[in-house]
Predict the 3D structure of the following.
Amino acid sequence: MSITVSGIVKKQEFGTVTWALVTDAVTYELKDAPKKLCKSDQKARVTGVVREDVMTLTMIGPVLEVQSFELCSIKQS
């Protein structure tokens, strides 16, 4: 089942580089994230499937296999 979540993309370095989507409630480890999505501190809306059958070395949160995404602008105050 697909979910759509919004948050800030962050680069996580735990021996290996991992990309995460940090939301207000959960940090998702991004699986199969396209290069255009892999840029720290950009806001994005990501649609994907939470993979409970996948383990990773970083274990920073649920693994979200990216199906599609949309970059969002961050409002400057």
Notes: The chain has one domain: 2-72.
